[in-house]
Amino acid sequence: MVNYPHNLIQKKAIPPQKGNSVNFANRGMSFESAINASNDYYLSRNIAVIHKKPTPIQIVKVDYPRRSRAKIVEAYFRHASTTDYSGVYKGHYIDFEAKETRQKTAMPMKNFHAHQIEHMANVLKQDGICFVLLHFSTLKETYLLPANYLIDFYHIDHGGKSMPLDYIKKNGYWVERGVRPQIPYLNVIEEIFLGGDHN
Fold first, then answer.
1. What is the pLDDT of residues 61-106, one digit of tens each?
2. pLDDT tens digit string along 143-179?
3. What are the two backbone dihedrals, phi and then psi, of residue 7, each rounded to the nearest 5 degrees?
4. In this prediction, what percent of the chain has a pLDDT beyond 70?
5. Strands 129-136 and 106-108
6. Domains parsed from the chain with CATH numbers
7. Are 163 and 153 contacting, i.e. CB atoms less than 8 angstroms apart?
8. Looking at residue 21, what is its pLDDT?
9. What are phi and psi of 96, to 5 degrees?
């Protein structure tokens, strides 16, 4: 049995005052590192198996200044990558992208590419759980936005506009930062995708 604390505020919620939240910057923790640490926490406790996908590259040229120190000097992406993370939680396929911005009022849609949108749509067609974690570093706020809302917004102008924070707050879920795990996004998954059954 897995019990989760209900540190979750759903749609239209207002995050707590800045003094009450954990500041990753003060701890030298990047958003990606915090997600990776959260995934390690979930794995170590047999809660979920979710990993960052490696970026597929083709190495073209390697420099060997010393025998023990090889340096890649030229490489190309083999093909367009899909999303950042994937895995399984309680028998459900999980697939998500993570984006960060210093902007205070919107998430630039140029950060998302057509092949990623297509991939997320395909995951949804197979009944996978797909979403994006959006981090506003200046505000120190993180939101989980279900993929269907990202896809809908992207199709307005094929990703040319920025997605307003108000749209994200209306259709997404604020993820309260923690310590273990640092970004407890599975709390949100439990509530909005799996009906809040913690057993």
1. 777 777 677 777 666 655 566 788 999 999 999 999 999 999 999 9
2. 999 999 999 999 988 878 899 999 999 999 999 988 8
3. -90, 60
4. 73
5. unpaired
6. 8-54+81-192 (3.40.1350.10)
7. yes
8. 44
9. -155, 160
For residue 119, how many other CB atoms are within 10 A of its CB? 19
- Extract the runs of DSSP E, i.e. beta strands, from the chain: 8-9, 49-52, 57-66, 69-77, 85-89, 92-101, 106-108, 129-136, 141-146, 162-164, 173-175
The span from the CA of 113 to the CA of 167, in Å, is 19
SS3 193: coil
Give dist(CA 30, CA 135) in Å, integer: 10
Structure tokens at 184: 């407890």
Distance CA 22, CA 31 (A): 12
Residue 107 bridge partners (DSSP): 163
